[in-house]
Amino acid sequence: MTLYSDFGARKARQIIGDVLALVLITVSVWLGTTVYAVIANLASFGEQMEDAGASFEEAMTEAGDTLGGVPLIGREIRAPFDGASGAGGALEAAGQSQQVAVGQLATGLGVGVAALPIIVIVMLWLIPRARFVWRARQARAVSTSGTGIDLLALRALATQDMSSLAKIHPDAMGAWRRGDEGVVRALAHLELKSSGVRLGR
User: How far apart are CA 139 and CA 191, in angstroms?
Assistant: First the structure.
Protein backbone atom coordinates (compact mmCIF):
# COMPACT_ATOMS: atom_id res chain seq x y z
CA MET A 1 0.00 0.00 0.00
CA THR A 2 1.31 3.42 -1.00
CA LEU A 3 0.49 5.89 1.75
CA TYR A 4 2.72 8.71 0.57
CA SER A 5 4.01 10.12 -2.68
CA ASP A 6 7.38 9.02 -4.03
CA PHE A 7 8.21 12.69 -4.59
CA GLY A 8 9.72 14.59 -1.68
CA ALA A 9 7.78 17.86 -1.77
CA ARG A 10 4.38 16.22 -2.11
CA LYS A 11 5.28 13.58 0.49
CA ALA A 12 6.27 16.31 2.95
CA ARG A 13 2.95 18.10 2.38
CA GLN A 14 1.06 14.84 2.92
CA ILE A 15 2.91 14.06 6.16
CA ILE A 16 2.32 17.59 7.47
CA GLY A 17 -1.35 17.32 6.50
CA ASP A 18 -1.68 13.96 8.27
CA VAL A 19 -0.06 15.26 11.45
CA LEU A 20 -2.17 18.42 11.39
CA ALA A 21 -5.37 16.44 10.83
CA LEU A 22 -4.60 14.06 13.70
CA VAL A 23 -3.81 17.01 15.98
CA LEU A 24 -7.10 18.70 15.04
CA ILE A 25 -9.03 15.47 15.65
CA THR A 26 -7.36 15.09 19.05
CA VAL A 27 -8.17 18.71 19.95
CA SER A 28 -11.78 18.24 18.82
CA VAL A 29 -12.19 15.16 21.00
CA TRP A 30 -10.62 17.01 23.95
CA LEU A 31 -12.94 19.99 23.45
CA GLY A 32 -15.97 17.72 23.24
CA THR A 33 -14.93 15.91 26.41
CA THR A 34 -14.31 19.21 28.20
CA VAL A 35 -17.68 20.64 27.18
CA TYR A 36 -19.37 17.44 28.36
CA ALA A 37 -17.57 17.55 31.73
CA VAL A 38 -18.34 21.24 32.33
CA ILE A 39 -22.04 20.87 31.56
CA ALA A 40 -22.34 17.54 33.38
CA ASN A 41 -21.10 19.28 36.55
CA LEU A 42 -24.34 21.26 36.54
CA ALA A 43 -26.10 18.01 37.43
CA SER A 44 -24.75 18.46 40.97
CA PHE A 45 -27.53 21.02 41.56
CA GLY A 46 -30.06 18.35 40.60
CA GLU A 47 -28.39 15.88 42.96
CA GLN A 48 -28.57 18.39 45.81
CA MET A 49 -32.20 19.08 44.99
CA GLU A 50 -32.96 15.35 44.90
CA ASP A 51 -31.20 14.76 48.23
CA ALA A 52 -32.92 17.74 49.87
CA GLY A 53 -36.33 16.61 48.58
CA ALA A 54 -35.76 13.04 49.75
CA SER A 55 -34.62 14.18 53.21
CA PHE A 56 -37.53 16.59 53.56
CA GLU A 57 -40.02 13.96 52.43
CA GLU A 58 -38.60 11.44 54.91
CA ALA A 59 -38.67 13.95 57.79
CA MET A 60 -42.25 15.03 57.07
CA THR A 61 -43.38 11.42 56.71
CA GLU A 62 -41.82 10.48 60.05
CA ALA A 63 -43.32 13.52 61.73
CA GLY A 64 -46.71 12.73 60.25
CA ASP A 65 -46.48 9.13 61.36
CA THR A 66 -45.52 10.18 64.87
CA LEU A 67 -48.21 12.82 65.25
CA GLY A 68 -50.78 10.72 63.46
CA GLY A 69 -50.80 8.37 66.41
CA VAL A 70 -52.17 11.05 68.77
CA PRO A 71 -55.69 10.06 69.78
CA LEU A 72 -58.61 12.08 68.43
CA ILE A 73 -56.58 14.78 66.65
CA GLY A 74 -53.91 12.64 64.99
CA ARG A 75 -55.57 12.53 61.57
CA GLU A 76 -56.04 16.32 61.41
CA ILE A 77 -52.51 17.01 62.57
CA ARG A 78 -51.04 14.52 60.12
CA ALA A 79 -52.63 16.07 56.99
CA PRO A 80 -50.27 19.09 56.70
CA PHE A 81 -47.25 16.83 57.13
CA ASP A 82 -48.51 14.51 54.42
CA GLY A 83 -48.85 17.53 52.12
CA ALA A 84 -45.33 18.68 52.97
CA SER A 85 -44.06 15.15 52.37
CA GLY A 86 -45.63 15.25 48.89
CA ALA A 87 -43.86 18.55 48.22
CA GLY A 88 -40.58 16.92 49.20
CA GLY A 89 -41.29 14.08 46.78
CA ALA A 90 -41.99 16.60 44.02
CA LEU A 91 -38.69 18.35 44.77
CA GLU A 92 -36.91 14.99 44.63
CA ALA A 93 -38.50 14.19 41.26
CA ALA A 94 -37.58 17.64 39.94
CA GLY A 95 -33.97 17.04 40.96
CA GLN A 96 -33.94 13.73 39.09
CA SER A 97 -35.45 15.36 35.99
CA GLN A 98 -32.85 18.12 36.13
CA GLN A 99 -30.05 15.55 36.21
CA VAL A 100 -31.49 13.72 33.20
CA ALA A 101 -31.87 16.99 31.26
CA VAL A 102 -28.34 18.11 32.08
CA GLY A 103 -26.97 14.69 31.11
CA GLN A 104 -28.73 14.81 27.75
CA LEU A 105 -27.56 18.37 27.13
CA ALA A 106 -23.98 17.54 28.08
CA THR A 107 -23.94 14.50 25.80
CA GLY A 108 -25.49 16.37 22.87
CA LEU A 109 -23.19 19.37 23.08
CA GLY A 110 -20.11 17.28 23.82
CA VAL A 111 -20.70 15.02 20.83
CA GLY A 112 -21.59 18.00 18.63
CA VAL A 113 -18.49 19.98 19.53
CA ALA A 114 -16.30 16.95 18.81
CA ALA A 115 -18.14 15.51 15.82
CA LEU A 116 -18.65 18.58 13.62
CA PRO A 117 -14.94 19.44 13.23
CA ILE A 118 -14.09 15.75 12.80
CA ILE A 119 -16.66 15.43 9.99
CA VAL A 120 -15.14 18.47 8.24
CA ILE A 121 -11.64 17.04 8.68
CA VAL A 122 -12.74 13.70 7.24
CA MET A 123 -14.26 15.44 4.23
CA LEU A 124 -11.25 17.66 3.58
CA TRP A 125 -8.45 15.25 4.55
CA LEU A 126 -9.34 11.59 4.88
CA ILE A 127 -11.33 11.22 1.66
CA PRO A 128 -8.64 12.87 -0.54
CA ARG A 129 -5.95 10.81 1.24
CA ALA A 130 -7.90 7.60 0.63
CA ARG A 131 -8.37 8.60 -3.01
CA PHE A 132 -4.61 9.19 -3.35
CA VAL A 133 -3.78 5.80 -1.83
CA TRP A 134 -6.19 4.04 -4.18
CA ARG A 135 -4.95 5.94 -7.25
CA ALA A 136 -1.27 5.39 -6.38
CA ARG A 137 -1.84 1.68 -5.86
CA GLN A 138 -3.60 1.38 -9.20
CA ALA A 139 -0.92 3.38 -11.00
CA ARG A 140 1.89 1.31 -9.47
CA ALA A 141 0.12 -1.92 -10.46
CA VAL A 142 -0.36 -0.71 -14.04
CA SER A 143 3.26 0.46 -14.31
CA THR A 144 4.55 -3.03 -13.54
CA SER A 145 2.26 -4.82 -15.98
CA GLY A 146 3.37 -5.85 -19.45
CA THR A 147 1.79 -2.99 -21.39
CA GLY A 148 1.59 -0.64 -18.41
CA ILE A 149 3.91 2.08 -19.69
CA ASP A 150 1.99 2.34 -22.95
CA LEU A 151 -1.34 2.47 -21.13
CA LEU A 152 -0.08 5.13 -18.75
CA ALA A 153 1.16 7.19 -21.69
CA LEU A 154 -2.24 6.90 -23.35
CA ARG A 155 -3.95 7.95 -20.14
CA ALA A 156 -1.63 10.95 -19.86
CA LEU A 157 -2.67 12.00 -23.37
CA ALA A 158 -6.31 11.78 -22.30
CA THR A 159 -6.12 13.41 -18.86
CA GLN A 160 -3.11 15.73 -18.61
CA ASP A 161 -3.33 19.38 -19.60
CA MET A 162 -2.05 20.48 -23.01
CA SER A 163 0.78 22.62 -21.65
CA SER A 164 2.30 19.66 -19.81
CA LEU A 165 2.02 17.48 -22.91
CA ALA A 166 3.60 20.17 -25.09
CA LYS A 167 6.62 20.28 -22.78
CA ILE A 168 7.24 16.61 -23.55
CA HIS A 169 6.76 16.85 -27.31
CA PRO A 170 5.05 19.30 -29.68
CA ASP A 171 3.12 16.38 -31.17
CA ALA A 172 2.86 14.04 -28.22
CA MET A 173 -0.02 12.06 -29.73
CA GLY A 174 1.85 11.51 -32.97
CA ALA A 175 4.99 10.46 -31.12
CA TRP A 176 2.94 8.00 -29.05
CA ARG A 177 1.39 6.55 -32.20
CA ARG A 178 4.84 6.12 -33.73
CA GLY A 179 5.97 4.33 -30.58
CA ASP A 180 8.65 6.87 -29.68
CA GLU A 181 10.02 5.18 -26.57
CA GLY A 182 11.37 8.36 -25.01
CA VAL A 183 8.06 10.20 -25.42
CA VAL A 184 6.07 7.17 -24.23
CA ARG A 185 8.16 6.93 -21.05
CA ALA A 186 7.93 10.68 -20.48
CA LEU A 187 4.15 10.55 -20.83
CA ALA A 188 3.97 7.57 -18.48
CA HIS A 189 6.19 9.40 -16.01
CA LEU A 190 3.88 12.44 -16.20
CA GLU A 191 0.83 10.31 -15.45
CA LEU A 192 2.54 8.43 -12.64
CA LYS A 193 3.83 11.64 -11.09
CA SER A 194 0.29 12.99 -10.87
CA SER A 195 -0.53 9.82 -8.91
CA GLY A 196 2.51 10.21 -6.66
CA VAL A 197 4.40 7.23 -8.14
CA ARG A 198 7.93 7.36 -9.54
CA LEU A 199 8.53 5.50 -12.79
CA GLY A 200 10.77 2.48 -12.50
CA ARG A 201 10.11 1.76 -8.83
Answer: 8
